[in-house]
Amino acid sequence: MPRSLSLAILMILLAAGSVAAQSPDTSSPPPAPPPKDSSAASDTTKPKKVWTNENLSDANGTVSVVGDPKSKPKTTASSKPADAQYIASTRKQLEKLQSQIADADKQITDLTNFSKGEPSTDAGGIKLNKGYNREPIEVQIRVLQEKKKDLQAQIDALLDEARKKGVEPGQLR
């Protein structure tokens, strides 16, 4: 027992010593604030003058103008008209992708209606070409939404490529 008591007292003394070593010294004065020379330096600088059309004639020297008349903008690929065959093929690809998105939307609507117990959007009711799907409806909806995102990404990539080749957006509609 005395050995554990002396060990406990020793631990308390060590802990108190480390706390005392970590505590800030209150006898030292706080650091002095920086001198206020920076405000004196800003008072000596001249404020910038804003020139308007009325007092522009008072300005001496040259007036800088944004842009350099020597450097003209380079002509890009968009300045030449795009190939009509490329536009037609791009338009056909866009229509195909948009019809696939519309089909996915219809399937998502049918699945959500089925999960709610509502009738499907088809009027016939009997679907001879449809099979049984063992996946849960939520999983099927999630897969269709991912497919829809992928199709939209393909459309965006196709539109970006067409834009880079100089096709105007109105030409693809």
Explain this structure to me?
With 173 residues, the chain is an all-alpha fold. It has a domain at 83-123 and 131-165. The chain is built from four helices and no strands. α3 (84-116) runs antiparallel to α4 (137-164). The longest helix is centred in the middle third of the chain and has 33 residues, at 84-116. The N and C termini lie far apart (93 Å).
Summarize this entry quickly.
The protein has 4 helices and no strands. With 173 residues, it is an all-alpha fold.
Order of helices and strands: HHHH
C-alpha Rg, in Å? 38 Å
Shape: flat
* Multimeric status of the protein: single chain
Structural class: mainly alpha
Distance between the termini: 93 Å
Beta strand count? 0
* SS strand fraction: under 5%
**Major beta sheet summary:** none
Outline the secondary-structure elements:
Layout: H1 2-22, H2 37-44, H3 84-116, H4 137-164
Helix pairs in contact: 3-4
List keywords for this structure.
173 residues, 52% helix, flat
